[in-house]
Amino acid sequence: MKFGIIVFPGSNCDRDMATVTQGILNLPTRMVWHQDTDINDLDVVVIPGGFSYGDYLRCGAIAQFSPVMNSIIEHAKAGKYVFGVCNGFQILTEVGLLPGALIRNRDLHFICDRVRVRVERNDLIWTRKYSKQQVVTYPIAHGEGRYFADEDTLKALEENNQVLFRYCSARGEINEEHNPNGSLNSIAGIVNQQGNILGMMPHPERASDAAIGINDGLAMFEGLVMAIA
Amino acid sequence: MANNYHARIYVTLRSSVLDPAGTAVESGIKQMGYSGVEGVRIGKYIEMKLTAEDETDAKTQLDRICDRLLANPVIENYCFEIDRLVSG
């Protein structure tokens, strides 16, 4: 199983991601410059966090026209795995692989913190090593992370169980007090209907090494490996 | 024959999208003493020059550019004005 981490000008979590896939899990990992278009060798395409193209215009707006993007769309349409974190999630919504948009946080602050999220389902490869409704701690670091979608889209997301992670309290309660950025329905991460594309604002890759205090994210990567190996 | 146009593009947040930055600016305006101000919404203004066959072609190009890049239809609306540039 091979990971490819897309590097845009302004990506800054690309090496964090490689530290987990290659450094901790010892899996073949390749950095893919955004000008490359041949990604046939990859099983999982990771679109990492950062500030692609300086976040100019809107977060993720310009990255959608990078040469690599058509290959990523083909990869996704073939049912292969695409994983967007933070800016990667923003890019996936901009390019239309996931519905909705990520807009300015409710209270305008850039939030750099650790938050709790609840795993809403564990029948997907992303979360198979978690239990359903498990509360895990992940870091977040974003200024534009408030998930927004129109009413119909939101309804469809809920009906199809496409919400994979929700911000919550330590006991797993979903409420506005534990919704750091004002996301609709406390959404922290969603998948497409088929479940092969995941976008999330929290950073599991920054919570995958016990040496840095939390490693709740490692189970996500281990689950992926189990599924594809 | 190709013509040159100047476009002024306005991108605004849809009314269903909250604009916390607009709210913050509104409170600043009220601090200035203008208590009668309300409904502050922040958008973007973009201008560009473009070459097109005629006005219809220019508008078609601008619609595509706005739909695909300058505005995100999930959260934003746009409108534009164009003028033909007459070369001296």
Summarize the structure in words.
The complex is a heterodimer of chains A (about 230) and B (about 90). Chain A is α/β, with parallel strands linked by helices and about 230 residues long. Chain A has one domain (about 5-105, about 145-165, about 190-229): Class I glutamine amidotransferase (GATase) domain (Rossmann fold). Chain A contains five helices and eleven strands, in the order βαββαβαββββαβββα. In chain A, strands 2-1-3-4-11-10-9-6-7 form a nine-stranded mixed sheet, with helices on both faces. Chain A has a two-stranded antiparallel sheet with strand order 5-8. In chain A, β10 (about 185-190) and β11 (about 195-200) form a beta hairpin. The longest helix of chain A is centred in the N-terminal third of the chain and has 11 residues, at about 15-25. Chain A is globular, with a radius of gyration of 16 Å. The termini of chain A are close together. The mean pLDDT of chain A is about 95. Chain B has about 90 residues and is α+β, with helices and mostly antiparallel strands. Chain B has a single domain (about 5-85), classed as Mth169, Chain: A (2-Layer Sandwich). Helices cover about 30% and strands about 35% of the residues of chain B. Chain B has helices at about 20-30, 55-70; strands at about 5-15, 45-50, 75-85. Chain B has a three-stranded antiparallel sheet with strand order 2-1-3. The longest helix of chain B has 16 residues, at about 55-70. The model of chain B has no long low-confidence stretch (mean pLDDT about 95). Classes of the chains: A alpha/beta (about 230), B alpha+beta (about 90).
